[in-house]
Amino acid sequence: MKISKIIPYPVKVGIRNQLLVKVETDEGIFGWGESGLSGREKAVIGAIEHFSEWLVGKPAFQIGSLWQELYRSQYFEGGRVLVAAISAIDIALHDIKGKALQVPVYELLGGKQRDFILTFATTSAPPGPEMIDQAKQLVEAGWNAMRLSPSGHGSKDLYEPREHVAESAKWCIKAREQLGEKVVLGIDYHHRLTVAESASFCQKMPRGTLDFIEEPIRDECPSAYHALRKLTDIPFAIGEEFASKWQFQPYVEEDILQFARIDVCNVGGLTESMKVAGCCESHYIDMMPHNPLGPVCTAATIHFAAAIANFSWLETRASPVEQYLGFDDSEIFLEQPRLNGAVLPITSTPGLGITIDEKRLQHQAFEFWEAPHLRRRDGSITNW
């Protein structure tokens, strides 16, 4: 069975763009993948077009070998754009192989190690009484792990970190008081803070208020996380933007992170994700996958989570308090993962278990979107 065609579909579904990738074969079996580089989909399409020039005619079953060829057969290897393209192709090849062998993808990864996938949800209201109410709704709906909203996260123009740190800390304390000790609570700072700002936030709360803090600072400098570790004991959840096992390496080997926020659509697909999971397992680090995209990403991550030992929770953006991504677009995604309470079932459908109406997809528009360019009050640029 050989690859015959690769088709990228940049489309707006729900409130955001998705880059879905279809890989066809000469035997009529096809697979779907998804790229995770949100906001730079056209750059990834360019990489896919380059790869397609020589991928057509290659054996579709040789997934590991093709991964190496995609990554290593160029002078400027790696990087987020190239690896986002590799990720989508790799996931689609797993879908093809699962369908051809009539087995779910997790069987290609060693078989499932659990019966369902636990998820964590995220409150959507800014810190305040409504955020607490949303957290209580999630507990009532079955969630025992959740991520709270930081102050200022919805900013579109202005963001002053110090103005939001105290407010976020105050309402994290209130959430812990009202939800009790059994609920796992975290917060995502979207790498907006400095080491000093992050430490200030963490030190404003009693010990044990949060079970994790996600991406408090940018990831380029692992030693900065070492510095932050000396100033707080809150576990770190890091890695959603990492594009290889090599980017994870210092964070794993130096025991910087406690939860690996791996994104199968950014890190190199299922092939690379399994390698990262193995490295993390050797350091007792749990995988806590990033999942902000569409049903293809969710399905691929379910198979990954099913097949590894060191798994905690999978992000969901389709809880009763968010409905973030338009997953209910059944006109396009005819078969897709759906929550059963706070868990995602693991199906035995061959491949990823995704069915897409390609004709409708072909008529779905792509809408240009640019992330907010945030500034501080003095006019300088700050992190989105």
Describe the fold and architecture:
The protein is of the alpha/beta class and 384 residues long. It folds into two domains: 3-103, Enolase-like, N-terminal domain (Enolase-like, domain 1), CATH 3.30.390.10; 107-350, Enolase-like C-terminal domain (TIM Barrel), CATH 3.20.20.120. Helices cover 36% and strands 16% of the residues. Strand 9, helix 10 and strand 10 (286-287) form a beta-alpha-beta unit. The longest helix is centred in the N-terminal third of the chain and has 22 residues, at 80-101.
Task: Report a brief summary of the structure.
It is built from twelve helices and 14 strands.
Question: Which helices and strands appear, and what pairs or packs with what?
Answer:
Layout: E1 3-13, E2 16-25, E3 30-35, H1 41-55, H2 63-72, H3 80-101, H4 105-108, E4 116-122, H5 129-140, E5 145-148, H6 161-179, E6 184-188, H7 195-203, E7 212-214, H8 222-229, E8 236-238, H9 245-253, E9 259-260, H10 269-281, E10 286-287, H11 295-307, E11 314-315, E12 333-335, E13 343-345, E14 355-356, H12 358-362
Parallel strand pairs: 4-5, 4-11, 5-6, 6-7, 7-8, 8-9, 9-10
Antiparallel strand pairs: 1-2, 2-3, 4-13, 12-14
Helix pairs in contact: 1-3, 2-3, 5-6, 6-7, 7-8, 9-10
